[in-house]
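note to self — DONT lose this again. spent like an hour looking for the file last time. sequence + predicted structure for the chain T wanted, 624 res
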Amino acid sequence: MYSYALSIAVLCLLGLSNANVLQGTVDVKRLQGILEEGVKSKDISTLYFSLKGLTILKAKIPDVCQDIQNAKYDLNNIEQVYHLTNAAHLSGCQNYLKPDVMSASTQILDKKDPTIPELYHAVFSLKAVGKGSIFDKEDALKNLIQLLKKDDSPANYGYVFAMCEHMGCGAWTAAHAEGALLAADESDARALHFDGGLPVTSLLLTTILRTYKELKKPSPLTEEQRLKFGAYLVSRRSVTSPRGAALLLDAAHALADDEPTPISIVIKGKKYVTSESDSIEFSITDLIGRAVRNLKPEEVVAQSGTRLADDVVVLSKQPLAQKPNDPTTYVLNLSKIRAQYGLYKISLSAGTKSSNVNIAVLGEIQVSNLEVGIGDVDGTTSPKITTITYPNKLTEVLQADHLQKVSVKLPVRDKWGKAVLVQQAFVRVARGNTEAIFVAEPDNTKAYKVELNVGAIAKHLNHVSGTYSLTVYLGDSAVSNPIAWELGNIAFSFGKNANALAASAEEAEGAWRGARPEIAHAFRSAEARPARLLSDVFAAACAAPLLLLLLLWARLRVNFAAFPFALSAVVFHAALGASLALYVMLWLQLSMFETARYLLPLAALTFVSGHRLLRRLVQDKTRH
């Protein structure tokens, strides 16, 4: 069954090649299980997101009023207050809230410099308990816009869009939604999401799409944006928390309800056809696994089917049948090609959407008999042929020496008796831990044949004469019944020198596998450093010219009055000083090449400014 497993693995890797469809859906059942488990939690945040997700799914909400009454929360943490009040609202347990729960929200609204997230949580905490009226909507919007100017992150835009949805300023959201959508990041040219991951992406998508629906405006998302946002949501398979599940479901439902909705076309169940099962099922759904709205069954068509081996078209414009009592499943009948095993590409269309699906037609192979021939290498005598019928073995041990060759020939046919080629055809020669595998090649009649020159294969078997087993392996990625046929035993004699060669080979192998001599390496010892006195004398000798210059300046006294305060003089002395400083840096830190790179422009500047300075001094001297 090894080849059968390989064929399935190959098909899984081939998958779908989609131009405008998704490669899966959001697993709603798994997420619902996460939410139902989260309702049992005593953590108020986990409880809130669990209730939110179940509400989105329109699932039954359990009685959690006692948990809300006993919930522990921090009044100074407005986000916890938001989770508590909204959990009470979703479960209808507002009467179980303590009176002090509203104080946190009012304190935030009274602050001089609240942040946008604080305002969002405060406003919707009050709304959850029926106190969230906004009296001056224009001033409130102006204040939010001013806060956005300080921090215009995608998350803050999502909070403002949500508050606009509550305040009734959806027109402002519609005016800025397209700009906010342009801030989405793209991953691998296949998925779109906002900075901040799933929470921000979910917040922006849901608020924007709900606002446009309330305004009865067409969606601001392009078809490509819908597909890429949907691809991002589908890829969030690692979500395991109620918070992530609720946010994912909220965004997925909003996007699935948008028009035109992105759809998913995937193979449902097996990805191969056999002689007993000649159909493939496809699941065609929206992002959350529902039947696609306005998709008629007759619009689901296999436009073409192409065999990958030779690009031959095997079907064209074949409609799929909708499965009874399951509007999301469509069946493609491939009975016409079930006798032609191989890999196929099916071009499938569902309305205006299309995808290329790779499937396999698995066939059965048969081997009726096999011929084993033993003859001289030079062909002077006719080989002795022994015929074996599958799945029997040799009745005796065949003999072959180093002057002979062994040939194995077998025809491979399909279920209908037609000669076929397979991807894997091997002959295994083995004895104990020693084995060698030889590839069989097809001849003009498509019969597989391999010739084993006994003297030549000795090196592959360590020159050890003796009895070896022969086994034939046949398989293919499109074959459902790979064959492993043990033929029997054959005794090889590799000649007089075989034992000596075997002994030397065994000795060489033992030496190679044994412990190697230890490698000893000693680094060169550091050279002795000169005495400290010698180093100090050398440093003083290097500094002597500079000391002499300073002494002469002190004795002669520098005449600053005669200094020509001109631009050329200042630049010349500055450049000269910079060059001296550069030499100091060469001594302390810089390399020779770095110093040369910095010195070249300084030298040019020193030359030009020095030339102008000398010319000025000559002009001043001639005037006097």
